[in-house]
Design a protein that fits this description.
The protein has a single domain (3-66), classed as Alpha-isopropylmalate synthase LeuA, regulatory domain (Double Stranded RNA Binding Domain, 2-Layer Sandwich). The chain contains 1 helix and 3 strands; from the N terminus they run βββα. The chain has one helix at residues 40-66, and strands spanning 3-8, 17-24, 30-37. Strand 1 and strand 2 form a beta hairpin.
């Protein structure tokens, strides 16, 4: 994880947070992902999972272009 951002979208008892992560793999592939939810931990994990999935998809597409 190269960057992690947390922002409050709304206030009150049902407050929402927005998590943004930027990820870079060992080959220099960079992606960003975002998630919104009520729980900071769950929302953070979802954003990281989305970023990892994007990195994996990017690698897969690059491998298919080479072969």
């Amino acid at each position: 994880i190269k960057d992690y951002g947390l922002a409050s979208i709304s206030g009150g008892s049902g407050a929402l947070c927005e998590v943004t992560v930027k990820v870079e793999d060992a080959l220099g592939n960079k992606v960003s992902a975002k998630s919104v939810g009520e729980d900071i931990v769950t929302t953070s994990v979802k954003a990281v999972i989305d970023a990892v999935n994007r990195i994996m998809l990017k690698k897969l597409l690059q491998e298919k272009q080479i072969s």
